[in-house]
Specification:
The structure is a homodimer. Chain A has about 140 residues and is α+β, with helices and mostly antiparallel strands. Chain A has a single domain, classed as Winged helix-like DNA-binding domain superfamily/Winged helix DNA-binding domain (Arc Repressor Mutant, subunit A, Orthogonal Bundle), CATH 1.10.10. Helices cover about 30% and strands about 25% of the residues of chain A. Chain A is built from 4 helices and 6 strands; from the N terminus they run ααβααβββββ. In chain A, the strands form 2 sheets. Chain A has a 3-stranded antiparallel beta sheet with strand order 1-3-2. In chain A, β2 and β3 form a beta hairpin. The longest helix of chain A is centred in the middle third of the chain and has 14 residues. β6 of chain A pairs antiparallel with β6 of chain B. The first copy, chain A, binds a DNA duplex (25 and 25 nucleotides) through α2 and α4.
Chain lengths: ~140, ~140
DNA sequence: GTAACTGCAAAATATTTGCATCCTT
DNA sequence: AAGGATGCAAATATTTTGCAGTTAC
């Protein structure tokens, strides 16, 4: 398990208070977070704009990755060791629980390759599964 | 191929000017559309709010389905015959071209089933593939 | 010391809501 | 005629930008 400082160093991001705090939130959170979630978890003396810019640079450097949703929000989740700047390896399945609404990265479930129609050249794939998660099954 | 009126009838939506026009836009469009795309294609005498509400009821009735993206927009695309109100069968792969940015529904490529960790109960899955589409391959 | 990060203000965009009016059935 | 759909106004929410001050290296 890496510390927040180690992660910033490794990704050549300067070490600032804001980044450390936001990174901590990710490290302490199971699952993915929306921009709004992060703001809520922040002691209010943080600027909304800083959050936007921090998330943006984290995505660019490959510290976190984005998860598409159908409700006009982007979710963010920590990348594991093998992501690099500019080239995400987040080819695992994301699971959205319809009960608790939490999104979980299933690191061990990789997105299967599919056969595309002639002429389509893929280079990345994402997969989102909805259902009941471990904590909410009945 | 169904007409706009047939589609509205079939889905128990009252037939109004706005709905007919917006439905026509979908029928004439290959690929998926964002809210903004639709507004652009509308002769300007349409209220933004009507578009929101129309898309919303189309989704509810299963006329169109939503496609998640990582850029804070939702894309909408026509459902094919086998969708019903409240229960979408849009289990096909969506392809996003990194060149022309168009999103295409690959109706014939169904989302493969994946094996989830113990305890996760899926009931729906979405898959988005990025790459170069037929028109943009080189 | 310099470049990069941050906060603040403000603009631009996007989304939602209430209500009166009009249209569909 | 009744219920639903629309337009308008306005409230909310979200995201982006510029700039001046501060901080990291």
């Amino acid at each position: 398990m890496q510390t927040n400082i180690e992660i910033l160093r490794k990704n050549k991001l300067s070490i600032t208070q804001g980044r450390l705090v936001i990174l901590d939130i990710f490290l302490q959170t199971e699952g993915a977070l929306a921009h709004a979630d992060i703001e809520k978890k922040l002691s209010s003396n943080f600027d909304r704009v800083t959050v936007y810019r921090t998330l943006q640079s984290f995505v660019e450097k490959g510290v976190i990755h984005q998860i598409p949703t159908t409700d006009n929000t982007i979710l963010y989740a920590l990348c594991k060791e093998n992501c690099e700047a500019g080239h995400h390896h987040d080819e695992h399945v994301h699971f959205v629980c319809v009960e608790c609404e939490q999104t979980t990265c299933l690191e061990n479930v990789i997105v299967p390759k599919v056969k595309l129609p002639r002429g389509f050249k893929p280079f990345q794939a994402a997969m989102i599964v909805k259902g009941h998660c471990v904590s909410c099954k009945y």
